[in-house]
């Protein structure tokens, strides 16, 4: 049975929560009004409005941009799977111990250093134009495939470092306990280490994939007709920049759910760690 004191505390907390919500809504509304007034009162606002926020151009370009966005989504899904597999492999190589594994560790370290330091746009140019230029049998010419390869190469380096940090965060006693009951190194990594490592680094992993969502639009530099290239075509057709705004908003809508998921995963991890 709830006591009178506890009921008073709950009522006080509810009142504070309602007050905080009301203050937040009011402050947000005031900020939005001030921002809107500042922008719309600028001398060049009518020209910017006609060039970037034309409703007719937005509606006309929406089908083309949506069709291109579907290509970005497919590239995103395939690249995420490939990045996870490659990232796990590289992270596992970097955590190998013993002098006999030094060549593999050196290759994995060199890969991470190279592709973390190489700008994505340059990697896209090197892969997208360099590989077909070799004219070797079996080298693809599809800009979507080549762009996906470049995305996987760059983002796998970041994911590998995140996973390696998660693996190193697992206490050595976990490995020793697993080996003491007869598990091999591979089974220890798969059953004991990786599940704990992935759970600990899930928020930064999700943040990397949020960044990957928008960077999938860079495959347009190779000629792939994705959302960005479709918007570029419509910009030339309508003689204004509204299609770019449409494409940008669609990318934001695509990224917001994953961003909120990353925030929720971070809060859940913080709560779990704080409860220990």
TrEMBL record:
A Pfam family recorded for this sequence: BPD_transp_1
Organism the protein comes from: Amycolatopsis ultiminotia
Topology of the protein relative to the lipid bilayer: Multi-pass membrane protein
UniProt keywords, alphabetically: Amino-acid transport, Cell membrane, Membrane, Transmembrane, Transmembrane helix, Transport
Gene3D superfamilies in the cross-refs: MetI-like
PANTHER family registered for this protein in UniProt: GLUTAMINE TRANSPORT SYSTEM PERMEASE PROTEIN GLNP, MEMBRANE COMPONENT OF AMINO ACID ABC TRANSPORTER
Residue ranges annotated for the ABC transmembrane type-1 domain, each copy included: 69-262
InterPro entries registered for this protein in UniProt: AA_ABC_transptr_permease_3TM, ArtM/GltK/GlnP/TcyL/YhdX-like, MetI-like, MetI-like_sf
Family label: Belongs to the binding-protein-dependent transport system permease family. HisMQ subfamily.
Subcellular location: Cell membrane
Entry protein name: Amino acid ABC transporter permease
TM regions (residue ranges): 21-39, 69-93, 114-132, 144-163, 241-262
Keyword Cell membrane among record annotations: yes
């Amino acid at each position: 049975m709830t006591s009178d004191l506890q009921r008073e505390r709950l009522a006080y907390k509810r009142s504070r929560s309602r007050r905080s919500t009301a203050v937040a809504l009011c402050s947000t509304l005031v900020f939005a009004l001030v921002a809107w007034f500042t922008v719309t009162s600028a001398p060049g606002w009518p020209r910017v409005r006609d060039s970037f926020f034309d409703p007719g151009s937005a509606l006309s370009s929406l089908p083309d941009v949506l069709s291109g966005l579907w290509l970005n989504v497919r590239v995103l899904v395939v690249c995420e799977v490939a990045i996870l597999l490659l990232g796990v492999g590289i992270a596992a190589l970097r955590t190998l111990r013993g002098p006999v594994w030094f060549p593999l560790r050196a290759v994995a370290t060199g890969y991470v250093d190279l592709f973390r330091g190489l700008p994505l746009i340059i990697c896209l140019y090197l892969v997208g134009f360099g590989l077909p230029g070799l004219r070797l049998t079996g080298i693809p010419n599809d800009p979507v495939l080549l762009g996906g390869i470049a995305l996987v190469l760059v983002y796998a380096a970041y994911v590998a470092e995140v996973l390696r940090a998660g693996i190193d965060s697992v206490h050595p006693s976990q490995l020793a306990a697993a080996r003491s009951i007869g598990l091999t190194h591979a089974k220890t990594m798969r059953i004991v280490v990786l599940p704990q490592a992935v759970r600990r680094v899930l928020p930064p992993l999700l943040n990397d994939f949020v960044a990957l969502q928008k960077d999938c639009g860079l495959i347009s530099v190779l000629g792939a007709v994705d959302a960005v290239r479709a918007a570029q075509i419509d910009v030339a057709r309508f003689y204004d920049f509204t299609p770019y705004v449409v494409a940008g908003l669609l990318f934001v809508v695509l990224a917001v759910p994953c961003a909120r998921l990353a925030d929720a995963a971070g809060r859940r991890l913080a709560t779990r760690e704080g409860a220990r």
